[in-house]
Amino acid sequence: MNLAKLTIASAHQGLVDKEFSSTELTRAYLDQIERSDGDIKAFITTTSEAALKTAAEVDRAISAGDLISPLAGIPYAAKDIFCTEGIKTTAASKILENFISPYESTTTDRLKKENAVLVGKTNLDEFAMGSSTENSGFFTTKNPLDTTRVPGGSSGGSAAAVAAGMALYSLGTDTGGSIRQPAAFCGVVGLKPTYGRTSRYGVISMASSLDTIGHMTKTVEDAAIVLETIAGHDTHDSTTSHVALDHYSAELGKNIKGLKIGIPRQYFELAGLNSSVADTVRLAIKKIEELTGNKVVELSLPHSIYALAVYYILMPAEVSSNLARFDGVKYGLSEKGSDLLSSYLATRAKGFATETKRRIMLGTYTLSHGYYDAYYKKALQVRSLIIDDFNKAFESVDVILAPTTPTTAFKIGEKTSDPLSMYASDIFTVPANLAGLPGISIPCGKVDNLPVGLQMIGRAFDEKTILRAAYNFENN
Amino acid sequence: MSIDNKQVEHLSHLARIELTADEKNTLTKDLGDILAYFEKLKALDTSNIEPTSQSIKLNNITRLDEVKPCKDAMQKKIIDNFPDSSGRFIKVNKVI
Q1: N or C: which end of chain B has fewer CB within 10 A?
Q2: CA distance A313 to chain B (A)
Q3: Is A154 a known active-site residue?
Q4: What is the DSSP string of chain B?
Q5: Nearest Cα to A311, choosing from A362, A247, A242?
Q6: What residues does each domain of chain B span?
Q7: Is CATH 1.10.20 correct for B5-43?
Q8: Distance CA B75, CA A432 (A)
């Protein structure tokens, strides 16, 4: 068994052909965690016992001659923000350090029903707020490709786990780029589906109008396979959609001749875009032109220059409201004060780390009396303009291409003292969240031995087209 | 728009987070910088633009308001998470 070469698709074939058992496969991944995670620190919790139990069940099914589903017996990791019954769910926060959820998130439940093998829960920036995992309340995850660098964030542990061969795929959440950016930094595939395509039920909320559940994989085919299992309407999440799902993996092989692709001029004019990253993306664009037979057109998303400001108003506003529930009364850390108010003040002071406090304070400010119209309402209006830009662009193109990030993975500690420079690493990813559109990041080359991500953004609920374009790019 | 130490103190009360003097100073600076970055939005005329609070245009998704039973095992798990309890009740400091 060659772990470096395995994908979900080939591991499934290996199980069906009885080349190896799920127990052997799972042990190989647990061994890899044992070997590498002391250094990489991708995992907050590992679940080897439960993993081997599930693997044994799958092995029994295979021996009995049962058909197994594509994810049965395949080891995966979940960002530690998905509630898992009986297993700690911390959101990488001291306020939930010992929290054990009484129920299971819809996404992990759907995987459980397929007998997917959960090997552990991965590190993140506290409550998914950050771009490097340095805001984790526990420890920083290292980039497996260069351990002096960050893996990106907030789903940094999930990206690192896949890149270091400690899981075949992982679940993440993407509110402003938290799947695509770490996927780009770690050289893996990261898919953020359309808002409403995947269920947020049982995922600890950060900014509810933006949070999207997705995943990281080694290949585009694997991304399609996982989406087929986790996507779809959920009665527990009223923001999930009834728009029909596609048979994503079956559509991948079709060529992309005639597909119309555009690049937003504004994205390439940005001062913070590293010139070598831009050159690498331009080379990728050339290749796409050969595959489609069409010239990639330059288009305009004039309001995209405001997207980061809009995002950093709306997201903290939603955060300040969502995180009000952590008050030390019903669960989690609880500091006793002399009265109820002092208990709240002390619990939240001790339980939240710096960035979380900063965002709660910022959201409280922009929502407060006298500032609401100037900030929050204004940002909601500019959000409409950003969505209109995309609607106009998709009248003439099928897919929008852009760099995933302005730079490759930065050094640990490089941006921690300057929040605005950290926020700027989300500049190319936040527009898709504001508009609710699907986006995928795929590796498209390297600069100084560090991976560069190519982002493809599609029309709402049209994951199949970006997956097909990404697959054609990856395999040609 | 700048923000001062006093406003930060008021916000910390609204947000129910006790801050140290150091944290207050850092936050005053950080929030000031971030709010200054937001100033660029002022250049846009949005007087006739409708606000968007969610992107996929779903409307009035409702369900029946019905009581569903919660199994004993689930109740126990919820109660086990209470920081302080008395039987099946959460114990908190005196409110009034």
Answers
A1: C
A2: 8
A3: yes
A4: ----HHHHHHHHHHTT----HHHHHHHHHHHHHHHHHHGGGGGS--TTPPP-S-TT---------------HHHHHHHHHT-SSEETTEE------
A5: A362
A6: 5-43
A7: yes
A8: 40
What tokens were used for A49?
A: 């016992």
Average pLDDT over residues A266-293: 93
Cα–Cα distance, A203 to A239 (Å, whole number): 13
What is the CB-side half-sphere exposure of residue B3 using CA atoms within 13 A?
23
Between chain A and chain B, the number of residue pairs with CB atoms below 8 A apart is 160
CA atoms within 13 A on the CB side of A83: 17
Please determine, for residue A267, whether its predicted confidence score (pLDDT) is greater than 80.
Answer: yes
Question: Which ipTM was obtained for this model?
Answer: 0.96
The Cα A261–Cα A273 span in angstroms is 21
Residue with tokens 């997201």: A315
Q: Tell me the shortest Cα–Cα distance from A349 to chain B, in angstroms.
A: 5
Task: Tell me if residue A145 falls in helix, strand or coil.
Answer: coil
CB contact under 8 A, A329 and B92: yes
B41 touches chain A (CB under 8 A): yes
Q: Report percent pLDDT > 70 for chain B.
A: 99
Interface test with A, best of B34, B44, B46, B64 (most A CBs within 10 A): B34
Nearest CB to A387: which of B17, B55, B95?
A: B55
Residue window 424-443, chain A: list those with CB within 8 Å of chain B: 434-437
A350 part of the active site: no
Task: Name the CATH superfamily housing domain A8-251.
Answer: Amidase signature (AS) domain (3.90.1300.10)
67-96 in B: which are within 8 Å (CB) of A?
74, 77-78, 80-84, 90, 92-95
CA distance A164 to A146: 11
pLDDT-derived band of residue B46, with 50, 70 and 90 as boundaries? very high
Mean pLDDT of A176-195: 98
